[in-house]
Write a structure and sequence with these properties.
There is one protein chain. The protein is mainly alpha-helical. About 60% of the residues lie in helices and about 5% in strands. It has one domain. It contains seven helices and two strands. It has a two-stranded antiparallel sheet. It is globular and about 45 Å long.
Length: about 130
């Protein structure tokens, strides 16, 4: 039985304790792998003692897909507006406070998150250049 980690709220897109059987939400393995590995959620999984369970259940997804989901997560605020990644990270920290597990996980994940956002932005720029006359 596959598990999928469902965000506890629309504003927090990292692993949560409310794992549900994927068949109940009709999620395929790709979606489960993306949710499990996006936004460098491995750090939160470690902090929640879920790392072994989630990594045993779900292989990593293709990096460009994980980066794309991380980009969307980390450039969209809880009000669904576009945010700079730095603003988004600051918003998460301010919402949870410095000692909260989510803040500690985001701090550990920041280099990975910034690299993912940069990779997607670079790919979008390159794609735009290729498509331009």
């Amino acid at each position: 039985m596959a598990l999928i980690a469902i965000p506890a709220s629309s504003s927090v897109c990292s692993m949560r304790r409310c794992a549900l059987p994927a068949r109940l939400v009709k999620a395929d393995d790709t979606l489960c792998r993306l949710v499990t590995h996006h936004s460098c959620a491995v750090n939160e999984a470690l902090n929640r003692n879920l790392f072994d369970a989630f990594t045993a259940e779900f292989d990593e997804e293709r990096p460009e897909r994980v980066n794309a989901l991380t980009y969307c997560d980390m450039t969209t605020g809880p009000d669904d507006t576009h945010r700079d990644v730095s603003e988004r990270l600051a918003e998460i920290h301010s919402r949870y406070g410095p000692e909260h597990l989510v803040s500690r996980s985001i701090t550990a994940s920041t280099p990975c998150i910034l690299a993912a956002v940069k990779a997607v932005e670079s790919a979008m720029i390159s794609s735009h250049r290729v498509g331009s006359p």
